Amino acid sequence: MSGLSLWGSDLFAQDTIVGWKFPSGSADSLADYSVGTLNTSRYISAQYGTSGFPSYHKITISYTADGADGTPDKCAMATGWNDGKDSSFWMTKFKTTGYGTLKLYAKQFSDASGPANYKIQYKLSGSSNPWVDITNGIMTCSNNWTSAVANGLELPAECNNQSGQLSIRWLMISNSDISGGTVTSSGISEIDDIIITGVSLNGVELNNYENFVHIYPNPCHGNFTMDNLKNIKTVKIFDILGKCVFEKENLLNENLNFSNYNKGLYLIQLTTLDNEIYSSKIIVE
Asked: In Å, how far are 47, 56, 124, 127, 164 from 51, measured between CA atoms?
C-alpha cells in the first residue's frame, strides 16, 4: 500500500475513498488506498472502444515508468493511443457508499507523440446510463506533470452514495499529440496520483480507528504516542505533500519525536493484519 499525494489542507477535511499511487516495488492496477474495505479490489484500466463491439480492445498498461514524484515513484503508462479520438480512455471504477461532496485529484503526462487532449467523464452503474462530462474536466497534457492536473475537481451530486460502481474515465478527445502532430502508436500517455475523496454522510469518519488505536496528545508539540497497535501490520505517516516521513511494521506502541519536522498536518495510515486500511490526522504545533 502506498502513500497519498496531498494537495493542500482540503484533502484532510475529507476521507480518501479510493486512490492509486503506484508505489515502487508494488505498482500495479489495484487501488493502493481504500476507506475500510469498500474499494480494496478496484483497479485502473486503459481501453479502446465499447465492450462487445468488434473494434474493442484493452490497452496494455506498464507500471515501470517514473511517476509524478520522480524515482522511485511509478505511474501507469501506456502506448497504442493512435486513432483514439473519442474512443481511447483511462478508467477507474469504485463505490461511494456513505459519502458525498466528492472530489477528484489526478495528474497526467504525455511524451512528444502522445495524446494532448482529454476530458474527464463519469457514469453511474448500469449499462443504460450515459457517460456525462464533468464540469472543468478538460485536460491539456504536456511532457510534464503540472499541465494536466485535476486538483479537487468536484463530482456531481448524483455520484454521491453509490453502492453500485461509479466509473470515471479520461477520454481522449482528439488525435493531436502535444507537439501539434498526430498521435502515433508509440505515443505515451501516463497517469498518476489518482485520489477520490468525500465527506461521510453519517457525520462519522468510516475510516476512524480511534476505537482500538490511541494517538495522543493531538495536537502535539513534536512528541506523540501511538499505542494499542497489536492488530496493526504497518504504520505510515505522510506530510502534506504526500511524502512518507515514517514507516514501520509490527509495532505494539511507538513514541515519536516530530520536533524536527515542519509544523502542520500529517496523515497517519495504518494497515491491519487483515489488510484493511485506516487513516486519521495529527497536528504538530
From this structure: 9, 6, 16, 11, 19
Residue-level pLDDT at 12: 40
Indicate which CATH number applies to the domain containing 155.
2.60.120.260
Structural domain ending residue among the three candidates 200, 229, 257: 200
Q: What distance in Å separates the CA atoms of residue 133 and residue 118, rounded to the nearest whole number? A: 11
> Which residues are 249's β-sheet partners?
234
Q: In the chain, how many domains are there?
A: 2
pLDDT single digits (tens) 165-191: 999 999 999 999 999 999 999 999 999
> Does a cis peptide bond (omega within 30 degrees of 0) precede residue 219?
yes
Query: CA-to-CA distance for 3 and 237, rounded, in angstroms?
Result: 8
Residue 35 has pLDDT above 50, yes or no: yes
Residues 181 and 254 in one domain: no
pTM of the model: 0.70
Domain membership flag for residue 205: no
Alpha-carbon distance 159 to 172, whole Å? 22
Q: Do residues 95 and 134 lie in contact, with contact meaning Cβ atoms separated by under 8 Å?
A: no
Q: Are residues 196 and 66 in the same domain?
A: yes
CA distances from 7 to 116, 150, 153, 194, 253 (A): 24, 10, 12, 12, 30
Q: Which residue range(s) make up the domain with 254? A: 214-284
pLDDT at 3 > cutoff 80: no
Per-residue pLDDT at 42: 96
Residue 203: pLDDT band (50, 70, 90) is very low
